[in-house]
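Predict both folds.
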Amino acid sequence: MESWDVVVVGGGPAGAAAALSARRTGARVLLLDRVDFPRDKVCGDAVAPEAVDVLAELGVDPAVLTAGHLPVPGLSLRSPGGATVAGAPTRPSFVIPREVLDARLVAAAVGAGAELRRHPVRRIEPGPDGVVVDDVQADVVIGADGAESVVRRALGIPTNAADTLAVAIRGYAPVPAEAAGTLVLRTTQQRWPAYAWSFPIGDGRANVGYGELVSAGATRGGLLEGLHRLLPEAEPARLRAHRLPLSTGRPRQPDGRVLLAGDAAGLINPLTGEGIFYAVLSGALAGEAATRGARAGAHLRDAMRRRLGAHLRSSGAAAQLSRWPRLMDAAFRAAAADRRVFDDVVALGLADGRLTARTLAAAVRRLG
């Protein structure tokens, strides 16, 4: 049977980052995906600057990664009660369609020495000395195969419960010239927590979508109604749906030789639905942990705790507090009045920020 040091299942941002990270240790890496690249992937397409930083540390040239896609300098947020805050984050994000982003990251992984194969994985069998993946064997397997992860299911780990699982629809629509430089997030009291987004991709179109919790009884008709209510100006084409396993319901990384990264590990920000930063960071940590053999799972769990533990506790606490729309309204008013609070909110929702005492105090002062 063919043998590899590391087999990565899934070629999205988490899988490509894992392959890049593992190759930097000298490991022989096989990257498997069930489709060819380039391919579309349902997502909001927003890439935070912190995600670009992680990829740069793995050897991906930011200029190549973002070529053809200018930074988006503005951010506009609307609370459930209609409070609006708009400004320029300290560092702008990029909006890169996943058809482009994922192909560039896979190309970087292949360029670094990983082997890419089109192959739909059906069988994962962990053993004391390795893991069988269909007809190959690996010392360690990294499951980066998304919300419906085959690897996660093979470990006996179910998907998130309905109250920590969101569903969203996404399409592309023309965007007015005056909105071409701004990421827009609009929340609503109806079917709360729920929100819509419009992220310009730089060619006259925006990635637009709407999402809410599965536990709210989400239906396609309800999702369409929510999108049209919050973004009445948007007329997206080819709407597609996807599920978002929120980090508030993430599974515990098990011990052993099978690792989980990105959506497969339930790493979606519960406040914003952001997942690309989590994907590349957890993928990078998984690729490094893969050198630990039978201790890889424990090593990744510890690395994730050190790197993201405080942030995930903050985002989880913020998600619980956000169940009170009035508190969200107050937090948005505080962000509009205080640049430091605005920066805290952006970092918490798009990267690895904390729920600071400053933000909490400012929100409480504006309750009423």
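Second protein follows, with its predicted structure tokens after the sequence.
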Amino acid sequence: MSKREAFLMRVDPEVLDAVRRWARDDLRSVNAQVEFLLRRALMSEGRLAKHGRKRRETGDDGSSS
């Protein structure tokens, strides 16, 4: 299993309640649901490679850094 890092996050109670309901509907913990949502958002924005592969960092001109 990959290493996990903990961090504190402040969130609006209404948002947290919605995430709790969604997590329950998807049979996930709130923590797993938040990570799922973050991963999905990061992948859709091209900021995280799919299937856990690291994306190569590039400079503004597309060259490797």
